Amino acid sequence: KCSARIHDQMGLNISGGSDSVVPQAKIIGSSPSGSSARQGNMFVFSMSYQPEFCYQHRKDGYPGCLNPNPIWKSSLTIHGLWPEFTDGSWPSTCSDEKFSQQTVDDIGLNRFELYWPNVKVRSGEDGYMKFWDHEWTKHGTCTGLRQDAYFKTALDNALATPDIVGDNYGESVKKVDLIQGFVDASSASQSSTGGAANMFVAVCDHSGKYLSEVRVCLDMDDNGFPAGVCE
């Protein structure tokens, strides 16, 4: 059984069904310093359910959890777009290209704050860019994409959250129905996602009871961009 909560309220309960075949990954080491060559042959796109994250960290007093955006109750947000290999391993930190805050400013800070939020630090304070810095340094540098292209690609292809999440807040739904909802919502969106249900997985918290994330396996094209759900 897998469910989700927000602060001291019960949230979405997910039950029944089995997880997908998206592999667990292991670090295989980094590429030579300065190299930006593409690594990996697929992506794992991970979306977070902020209500559960905030519940798990309810004692930490994170600013974004104390004053959450209401949309997060019914819409998952981006955790990361991660290049991986089909054998389950992943590349990590493939170049020494530094994260640039200007990239975030050029794309639009408001897009990041809504769809790829850092709830741990208050906007404008030291460390606010650390989350996106981490995602670029560890994962983005291994895509072969320019920094602006990496972030914009993730934002443009974020998984659409199905109505079943918001409509059943505080209730229970079957995991198979949740996953099918993501398949249908992604297929209907303009993103490069959509596809077979066995390429989506609901990830639970450490107790195995509460929904934490939804992940999908995406193919990677020859230029390092997502190319639809893995076949």
From TrEMBL:
<dbReference type="InterPro" id="IPR033130">
    <property type="entry name" value="RNase_T2_His_AS_2"/>
</dbReference>
<dbReference type="GO" id="GO:0006401">
    <property type="term" value="P:RNA catabolic process"/>
</dbReference>
<dbReference type="GO" id="GO:0033897">
    <property type="term" value="F:ribonuclease T2 activity"/>
</dbReference>
<dbReference type="GO" id="GO:0003723">
    <property type="term" value="F:RNA binding"/>
</dbReference>
<dbReference type="GO" id="GO:0005576">
    <property type="term" value="C:extracellular region"/>
</dbReference>
<dbReference type="Pfam" id="PF00445">
    <property type="entry name" value="Ribonuclease_T2"/>
</dbReference>
<dbReference type="InterPro" id="IPR001568">
    <property type="entry name" value="RNase_T2-like"/>
</dbReference>
<comment type="similarity">
    <text>Belongs to the RNase T2 family.</text>
</comment>
<dbReference type="InterPro" id="IPR036430">
    <property type="entry name" value="RNase_T2-like_sf"/>
</dbReference>
<protein>
    <submittedName>
        <fullName>Uncharacterized protein</fullName>
    </submittedName>
</protein>
<dbReference type="InterPro" id="IPR018188">
    <property type="entry name" value="RNase_T2_His_AS_1"/>
</dbReference>
